[in-house]
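2.7 Reproducibility. Because tokenized structures are sensitive to small changes in the input, we list the exact sequence used for SDR family oxidoreductase, including any N-terminal residues retained from the expression construct. No trimming or masking was applied before prediction.
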Amino acid sequence: MPQLESDAPDDMIHEDGLPGHESQLDPKPEWQPRYPGSGRLAGKVALITGADSGIGRAVAALFAREGADVAILYLCEHDDARQTARIVSAEGRDALTIAGDIGDKAFCDAAVAQVIDRFGRLDILVNNAGEQHPDKDITDISEDQLRRTFQTNIFGMFFLTQAARPHLKSGAAIVNCTSVTMYQGEKELLDYSSTKGAITAFTRSLSENLVKEGIRVNAVAPGPIWTPLNPSGGASPEKLEHFGEGTPMGRPGQPNEVAPAFLFLACDDSSYMSGQVLHPNGGTIVNG
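Resulting structure tokens (single pass, no recycling of outputs):
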């Protein structure tokens, strides 16, 4: 059954009201897996950051359908996290919810320890959580915002990977979430896009570091996907009205259109891939 291990205090909600409630979005993002499971993650344990909503929820749902127990790390949206736990449980798998700030190394160490205490192993680490704060001019980016964005988006990946590393054995997989903004740039997301560039370099370098240990490291670079990150991250109503229309497909993607890329990289279907990036982005062609 779903279990809530801890609640993050309300004061952990920071600038722009992030990460935002999926339950309050209209229309609702589509997280539902599209196909029956085939046991590709049977017996595995996955830790997914930002799994309370958006892409993280869709990945948790799909991983559970494929046989994995799931640890759901999230900041403070307790209602969304409980819903994701119910989704995992409905697939017949065990869910563990852990609230806290991945930008805090002590929290990351404690969270991984909870996962090991509960499940006794860790096979898949999905570094998905992130935040963004649009600004029209570089001079509008405060020092606090710059530090916070890097703390969550890239420091958190280092902290969690460091905590998880002693428990990852040969055959384990790490999947990081970068972004199309790393390849195209985004004029109003200077700090966010910079962290995504760091994540891509981190992915490639960590792959080189771990590949001889039998641990594969890859990444997914989504395009515009309908999740709480965008309306809660300060996007204007005008920008949201046309969100995703600039892709060749002319629409935003849904979380359940991205989750299969994470599944592919987490399971043995991608056994000959490491240091690579997949691009579910609506047809935008990038070099990467």
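Residues 1-15 have pLDDT under 50 and may be disordered.
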